[in-house]
Amino acid sequence: METNFFHIFYLRGGIKNNLSSIYLRVTLRGKRAAASLGRKITADLWNSSAGRVKGNTEKAKVLNRYLSKIENDLYLTHQKLLEKGTKFSAQDLIDALLGKDKKEEIQEKMLLEIFQEHNDRVNRLVGKDFAAGTAERYRTAKKHVAEYIKKEYKTSDIPVKDVNHKFITGFEYYLKTERNCAHNSAIKYIVNFKKIIRIAFSNEWISKDPFQNWKAKLKVVDREFLTEDELQVMIAKEIKNERLSLVKDIFTFSCFTGLCYADVKKLSKKEVVVGFDGNRWIKTNRTKTKTRSSIPILPTAEAILKKYASHPEVNEKHLLPVLSNQKMNAYIKEIADLCGINKNLTFHLARHTFATTVTLSNGVPIESVSKMLGHKNLQTTQHYAKILDRKISDDMAVLRERLGAKNFGKNAKG
């Protein structure tokens, strides 16, 4: 019985992401059988005559050691089958090599493949379970991870089991230095990445969570908002440009409702109802958190709704003619210049203005503000109260100077 066999390692595929899968092919008695080894590499790094990876990089050394181990295991498996004394085929030899335990080890999951599978699911659920902005952040996070792997590991993907604490801290350093991300932005990208690792851990593709000893520490950032004077200046400013005037009105509407861009964009007629007090209310579920917001419509916001009630783009599904987020933010900066407001205005700053200048500064209880903003817990809203404490401190400092100039209290006796 002919028992000698031949084997080669070769590449297959290579269209998607320019990656090719490494395969093992065994030939015995003129019959062939092949199997994927769960590793991928670009064709330019492959030496077909040697059946090995080119170069002396750490990645190349790891892969070549792995292939040598498979080769050694193949000969050992062949010898064991011979000792049984039964006839076996090339497929039998590969099946014996890739036993259940070994097969699971070989067919390991690749990090960016898992990331892409997750992102594909998120994209399909945009508008249902996820906002478009969330999907975009996951796409950006995956892009950053891919670029980090390419720079640090000189390859296009790595097995998810190779992600460890060193990888995570290295990725954080890369985001802050190479990508010039601010601390909080870097942490948020890592948290997005952490979701992918948790998926791998839950599916038992990895045996240990590498994030176990990593803690996200966001820095508290003071949120800017328009003061009462700045808000009055913007409202009173007459802008002849129709497009800028429209953006100013919608921004002002957000200042008096606390709605973020996505919630203003999707605001429909059915979300405006008459409340128990006989006044009109906005009752909507936040796009970001799905929590309920109940907001009485103040006169300034009501006037804006009436102004655009007959606009051609206003209908049952859209209460205001909102432009794209990118255009809104670009035009808001122009409006700030026209109004002489020296702040980096974004649409989201309107939400902060509602929380501070419009409500908390005017004595609205923080519990009511929290409900109108649709916050899940009061702690999120309390950050605005801290901002107001700082404003009070600044105001009192001015008062101290004025009192000092008037010599108040200098002659008082204790």
Automatic annotation (TrEMBL):
Lineage top rank: taxon: Bacteria
GO molecular function: DNA binding
Gene3D superfamilies named among the record's database cross-references: 1.10.150.130, Intergrase catalytic core
UniProt keywords, alphabetically: DNA recombination, DNA-binding
PROSITE patterns per the UniProt record, alphabetical: TYR_RECOMBINASE
GO biological process annotation, one example: DNA recombination
Tyr recombinase domain segment(s): 221-398
Entry annotated with the keyword DNA-binding: yes
Family note: Belongs to the 'phage' integrase family.
PANTHER family, per database record: PHAGE INTEGRASE-RELATED, PROPHAGE INTEGRASE INTD-RELATED
Protein name: Site-specific recombinase XerD
Organism of this sequence: Salegentibacter echinorum
